[in-house]
Specification:
By secondary structure, the protein is α+β, with helices and mostly antiparallel strands. It folds into 2 domains: 50-115 and 313-344; 122-308, no CATH class. It is built from 2 helices and 18 strands. A hairpin with a 5-residue loop joins β6 and β7.
Length: 345
């Protein structure tokens, strides 16, 4: 054990150093000042940049809200404004207008790109479908050499809507086999129709065996002078429901929506075909005709590849503030609107 003893002047000096604090904080203050000068300026600059980014982001967000609202405004006019759709003619298919939203002027352009030509394909029915019988829809082309039909996809969800005496509405979608389609197929008779909406996003060639020289999507049906029976498969296409579980009274005006293209997709040709609605008894293999309807479109009315037969049109919508823009495509008919695409530019 060592004892350190301070004596004399040495002890006085050490005590003086320990008691005195003057000047000891200055080096620390100088270090902090130097550190602050290095850090504060970049931090303030970063905060300024962040504030500007927030302001820019907020302005962009407001612009996006405005163009989104502009598209929704166009949807509302398509659905509810009398005369708005009728104002889009084959000669002038676009309507342009503007609205003010959140101090932004939004320019909106609505263009009808399909659904211009032809009358509605409708048929009045008053018929009791017996239990265990199947409802058949059959199409025969009787003008313009041949026509193509598109169905069983989300965009081309061909269907028949039938009212009943019980104040119900039956909707049957037309399918291919297999459904949903996964590739090209040969032409097939007795395809199905049911209440399941198609989910496929690709329209394939449904008649490779008849259309191999000029492969086109959908189903090609050649012109025939006869019908509805005694035809080759290339001259008709038919769909059937499952057997009815009970007697069902079909009563009212049904609407049929099919997507068609005349003569190999030539827009300057006329097109005409006939729809038959029939009662099929699977026990005897016999048919009872319920009704038929013709659909004719003049060549000058065709505006796009596929033409819907019912009052369902396809519309291209652009909403633009000059800084933000949205483009959308919508299909509208039967009192509802389906958004097919929605893209911020």
């Amino acid at each position: 054990m060592v004892n350190l003893v301070l004596q004399g002047d040495s002890s006085k000096v050490l005590k003086k150093v320990l008691k005195s604090e003057s000047g000891q904080i200055l080096p620390l203050a100088l270090v902090c000042l130097c550190f602050g000068s290095l850090v504060i300026s970049p931090m303030l600059a970063h905060m300024g940049t962040g504030l500007k980014a927030v302001q820019t982001g907020r302005a962009n967000l407001v612009g996006q809200y405005c163009v989104d609202a502009g598209v929704e405004h166009a949807y509302g006019r398509l659905l509810y404004e009398d005369g708005f759709i009728a104002s889009m003619t084959p000669e002038n298919p676009s309507v342009e207008y503007s609205i003010d939203l959140n101090s932004e002027n939004v320019l909106i352009t609505v263009t009808r790109i399909a659904g211009m030509g032809g009358d509605w394909l409708t048929m009045d029915v008053d018929y009791i479908m017996p239990a265990d019988h199947q409802l058949e829809l059959r199409v025969i082309v009787h003008d313009d050499d041949h026509m193509h039909f598109a169905y069983d996809t989300e965009v081309y969800d061909a269907r028949i809507i039938i009212p009943t005496a019980a104040s119900e509405t039956l909707t049957y979608y037309l399918h291919n086999n297999p459904t949903p389609p996964v590739g090209d197929t040969d032409a097939q008779a007795n395809l199905s129709m049911d209440d399941i909406q198609p989910t496929a996003d690709t329209l394939y060639n449904y008649d490779v065996n008849y259309d191999w020289r000029h492969p086109k999507p959908g189903r090609r049906v050649e012109e025939s002078d006869g019908g509805p029976d005694g035809l080759e498969l290339k001259e008709y296409q038919n769909w059937r429901t499952a057997p009815y579980s009970s007697d069902t009274h079909l009563q009212g005006t049904l609407v049929i929506n099919m997507f068609i293209a005349p003569d190999g997709f030539n827009f300057d040709n006329d097109g005409s075909f006939r729809i038959y609605l029939r009662d099929y008894d699977p026990a005897t293999g016999t048919y009872t005709e319920i009704g038929s309807a013709d659909y004719t479109v003049d060549g000058g009315q065709w505006t796009e590849l596929w033409q819907p037969t019912a009052p369902e049109g396809k519309y291209h919508i652009v909403a633009d503030t000059g800084k933000e823009q949205v483009t959308a495509t919508a299909s509208m008919g039967f009192g509802y609107l389906r958004v097919l695409s929605f893209i911020h530019n």
